[in-house]
Automatic annotation (TrEMBL):
Organism whose genome encodes this protein: Mycobacterium tuberculosis
Stated name of the protein: ComF family protein
Tree of life domain: Bacteria
PANTHER family assigned to the protein according to its UniProt record, in alphabetical order: DNA UTILIZATION PROTEIN YHGH
Species lineage: Bacteria, Bacillati, Actinomycetota, Actinomycetes, Mycobacteriales
Length: 89
């Protein structure tokens, strides 16, 4: 790992499971569109999200943005990059 997060903590992150293929809203099955996106497609093509926006992800983002804890940006970038590589494989 290139970031200060142990494997246990990484596994405890609120990982996003099955979700809307457009907006990433959690859904019971993969590949579906949520009710809102089914009625009207969003102006964007797709959202890429790894986690639910809840603890501790919301705290990490808040500390990065509002408390200038810049190393957390590196941590989140590493995790997002890892997720992109995994999902595009």
């Amino acid at each position: 790992q290139h970031y200060p997060l142990c494997v246990g903590c990484e596994q405890e992150l609120p990982w996003l499971g099955d979700h809307c293929r457009y907006c990433a809203l959690p859904l019971p099955m993969a590949g579906l569109a949520c009710a809102q996106c089914s009625r009207r497609l969003p102006a964007f093509e797709k959202v890429f999200a790894l986690w639910h926006f809840g603890f501790p992800v919301d705290t990490l983002i808040s500390r990065f943005k509002h408390h200038r804890q810049w190393p957390l940006g590196r941590l989140m970038a590493e995790l997002l990059g890892q997720g992109l590589r995994y999902r595009s494989a």
